[in-house]
Design brief:
mainly beta; Sulfite Oxidase, Chain A, domain 2; five-stranded mixed β-sheet; 2 helices; globular; binds the ligand Nc1nc2c(c(=O)[nH]1)N[C@H]1C(S)=C(S)[C@@H](COP(=O)(O)O)O[C@H]1N2; binds molybdenum atom
């Protein structure tokens, strides 16, 4: 996970309690990707929910844009130690996606999948009850390709590698299956407040 140079800003009075241990505050928005930015053809874009290997719901881009969109402003924390406050997103809450699909989460674990082959695992409980969304806009504009556009998972209370860019589906799994970084030494859960950066933290 390569990091890029940036200058940390010291949190002001009243902000320091929002900065998890070992993190620096940054004003810019670093880009971190394991590989090149995939070209996502909107005509072929789709978002699929799977129960294990079985697809249970699927939306085209046209269908997805008709789902209820809400705004979510949250602090985000990258494992490479930058944090950014008040990032303003809009998108479709995972709760609303499940409601539209007419299903209750079938298993306790979820693996997010992306167009670049990236995966990341999140307990299903961390995606529901207003905690996570499929974001389609950042600061009022479509998410740029480098930040995961047209759509990315946003799970702001966990380290940012859990927020899969270029997301194309969520797969409910019986076991907690490690994703791309989790199989390469990063923590299975990734709570910034407990500094769960690496395996065993
Ligand atoms: N599909 C995909 N999602 C991804 C990544 C990636 O390489 N591929 N990198 C992750 C990591 S390590 C981080 S910190 C954030 C970075 O998001 P940003 O580039 O918008 O800052 O995206 C995460 N989501
Ligand atoms: Mo990251």
């Amino acid at each position: 996970m390569a990091t890029r140079g940036f200058f940390g800003k010291r949190p002001s009075e009243g902000e320091s309690d929002r900065l998890p241990p070992g993190q620096y505050l940054t004003e810019d928005f670093p880009v971190l990707s394991a590989g090149p930015t995939p070209r996502v053809d909107m005509e072929k874009w789709s978002f699929t929910l799977k129960d294990g290997v079985r697809p249970v719901a699927r939306w085209s881009w046209d269908e997805f844009t008709k789902l209820p969109h809400v705004k979510l402003t949250r602090d985000i924390h990258c494992v490479t130690k930058w944090s950014k406050f008040n990032t303003a997103w809009s998108g479709v809450m995972i709760d609303d996606i499940l409601a539209e699909a007419g299903i209750a989460p079938p298993t306790a674990f979820t693996l997010a999948h992306s167009f670049d082959g990236y995966t990341t695992n999140v307990p299903t409980a961390d995606l529901v009850d207003g905690k996570a969304m499929i974001a389609t806009a950042y600061e009022g504009k479509p998410i740029t390709p480098d930040h995961g556009g047209p759509a990315r998972l946003l799970v702001p209370h966990l380290y940012f590698w859990k927020s899969a860019k270029w997301v194309n589906g969520l797969q409910f799994t019986k076991r907690d299956e490690g994703g791309f970084w989790e199989l390469r030494g990063y923590n299975m859960y990734g709570d910034p407040w407990r500094e769960q950066r690496f395996t065993g933290d």
